[in-house]
Specification:
Blueprint: E1 5-7, E2 13-17, E3 24-26, H1 33-55, H2 59-86, E4 100-105, E5 116-129, E6 132-137, E7 144-145, H3 155-164
Antiparallel strand pairs: 1-2, 2-3, 4-5, 5-6, 6-7
């Protein structure tokens, strides 16, 4: 089944007229009775297919129809995210609420004055400032900037900073 329509980048929908040697695009207002008949027949085919799915109780066709609608919804959602990304409004965070944090303690677990990486509390808040990412952990009252002594998102990150101290 060949397409009867083409959607331009600007969102305009064109009717493709295959009557000519080289198919041409027509605006809907330029469609003649033959073009209208083709469009209506094609629409009827889609509607017949949906009816057939329902009448025959064909689980395969129903799943296909359901998945197609789900796919279209996913594409529309992806388009929204792409637009947000183009506008600079979409952020990918390096952590999520509930992730474990790590911090550098002045003492090891035995109380010796040996700086050590320790596991912190889970993240309960995330803030973004011009100078970086800040997190609030369970039990704390102030946000801490990620990547300094009190706020690391991985043990490896904290250990790398500890080696530099």
């Amino acid at each position: 089944m060949e397409r009867l329509t083409r959607k331009s980048d600007s969102g305009m929908i064109w009717f493709i007229d295959y009557e000519h040697k080289n198919p041409i695009d027509k605006e809907p207002c330029e469609m003649d009775y033959r073009n209208n008949r083709l469009a209506i027949e094609k629409l009827a085919e889609y509607e017949d297919l949906e009816e057939q799915c329902i009448k025959e109780n064909s689980w395969c066709l129903r799943i296909l129809l359901y998945k197609w609608k789900e796919f279209i919804n996913d594409i529309q959602e992806l388009y929204k995210y792409r637009k947000l990304e183009e506008q600079g409004k979409l952020l990918k965070l390096p952590c999520k609420l509930g992730d474990t944090t790590f911090w550098i303690s002045d003492e090891d677990e035995d109380g010796n004055k040996i700086p050590t990486v320790r596991e912190g509390n889970p993240i309960v808040g995330i803030a973004i400032q011009k100078d970086g990412l800040y997190i609030l952990t369970d039990g704390d009252t102030e946000y801490e900037k990620v990547g300094i002594r009190w706020a690391f998102l991985s043990r490896e990150e904290a250990e790398a900073v500890l080696k530099k101290l």
